[in-house]
Amino acid sequence: xxxxxxPHWPALLARLDQAExxxxxxxxxDHDRLxxxxxxxxxxxxxxxxxxxxxxxxGFTVDAFGKPEAVPPAGMRRLRLNLSHTxxxxxxxxxxxxxxxxxxxxxxxxxxxxxLAQRFFAPAECAQLVALPPEARHxxxxxxxxLKEAYVKAIGKGLAQPLxxxxxxxxxLSIAFDDSLSDDPSxxxxxxxxxxxxxxxxxxxxHPDPGSVVVETRAMSAEELLxxx
Length: 229
What we know:
The chain has 229 residues and is of the alpha+beta class. It contains 7 helices and 9 strands, in the order αααβββββαααββββα. It has a 3-stranded antiparallel sheet. Helix 2 (18-25) packs antiparallel against helix 3. The longest helix has 22 residues, at 30-51. The protein is globular, with a radius of gyration of 18 Å. It starts with 8 loop residues before the first helix and ends with a helix. The relative contact order is 0.15.
């Protein structure tokens, strides 16, 4: 979700529960606070659109790594919701049962220092970056970063999972794990998307048969979101 007009912000904020509103007020910069509000209102709107349960009626629990989990009404299948936001864009991913992670980044951010990839990425990823022309490395770095963030968010560990314990190849898109990580590449689906000219998005989904998965993506305006109860 992007391009939210000023009159819509109070209604979006009203969709959040008190804990979310308190968290929003702790952001120092207005743009960070508004992105947080947009992401959480979008997530609640997505839940409402999928289930018919009012956006404001959802509760959430938090696991040991701080990952929020939507609490479905009795009798409803487990839903997995993941959120991400950056300057100018909020994103949400929703599945039934299957682990999912999403991450977005703003391409206008200052390019990272050369040594950051060496600090956090796997050697194979660093080699791919070095092989690229200098002008292509910023976008490629953010492709790697969003993919890695989406994966660790999907498995629920966040940055507690070392980012150099697995490696992506961008073309063709694939993942490989080192010997210390018990995971199976054949159980993962990844997508790299450009939702706007100024943003990159990565999606990670754990599924026993990734080839059977249909990924639906769409932009949603604030007007559409607020049309759901």
